[in-house]
Amino acid sequence: MDLALFDFDNTITDRDSLSAFIKAHLLRRRLRWGGLLLVPLALGYYRLKIVPAHVMRAAVMRIGLTGLARQPLVEAGRRYARDTLPGFVRPHALERIRWHQARGDTVVVVSASIDLYLRPWCRQQGVALICSQLGHRRGRFTGRYRGRDCCGEHKARQILKRYRLRDYAAVHAYGDSAEDHAMLALAEHRSYRWQPVRDDVPREG
């Protein structure tokens, strides 16, 4: 049995699922004033390419979610997973997941996107999940993560915390950005933007 690790946004999907969820389910007035506060960061992220993605995500979570009631967004996440995400998923990505499942492999989505909609989507697909989890207290979001944003080296650490790689005959990893490099380094069989990475570097861990 092998272990198959999949990034989600722009690997399984053809777009950023988090941005689409935020735009669809946050209050319009919060998006308006929050957007103004985020202008400097957005300029650094989208135009100048000097603000890391994880910094941008943390700012969006802080401004967009702080103080919001949790249960309505949990329900929104379930609907989003059921009704919206299927239209974002790349058919060949889902085929690859099914191929691994048919072989009896352990399939894991490892993503910086959030648990609100990834957990129900992964449950629907019968795959495991490691992702960014939103903090909450007394039924409201804190605007911070519970733990850390699941990207970069933290992805690899969370994988190694949950799975012993030596228990698997081989490890496969699929990613699309620099945030996936540490995860890809754990695998013998690596795919970057759906192109095989051919090198002789042994997997880490």
What is the compact description of this entry?
The protein is an alpha/beta fold.
How are the SSEs placed, and which strands pair?
Elements: E1 3-6, H1 17-25, H2 28-47, H3 53-65, H4 70-84, H5 91-103, E2 106-114, H6 115-125, E3 128-132, E4 134-137, E5 140-145, H7 153-162, E6 171-175, H8 181-184, E7 189-192, E8 195-197
Parallel strand pairs: 1-2, 1-6, 2-3, 6-7
Antiparallel strand pairs: 4-5, 7-8
Helix pairs in contact: 2-3, 4-6
Descriptors:
single chain; Rossmann fold; HAD_sf; magnesium ion binding; HAD-like_sf
Q: What does this entry look like structurally?
A:
Helix 4 crosses helix 6. This protein has a single domain (2-196), classed as Rossmann fold (3-Layer(aba) Sandwich). The mean pLDDT is 89. Helices cover 46% and strands 20% of the residues. The strands form two sheets. A six-stranded mixed beta sheet has the order 3-2-1-6-7-8. A two-stranded antiparallel sheet has the order 4-5. It is of the alpha/beta class and 205 residues long. A hairpin with a 2-residue loop joins strand 7 and strand 8 (195-197).
Major beta-sheet overview: 6 strands, mixed
Strand order of the largest sheet: 3-2-1-6-7-8
Rg measurement, Å? 17 Å
Structural class: alpha/beta
The parts where pLDDT drops under 50 for at least 5 residues are none
**Whole-number mean pLDDT:** 89
Strand content: 15-25%
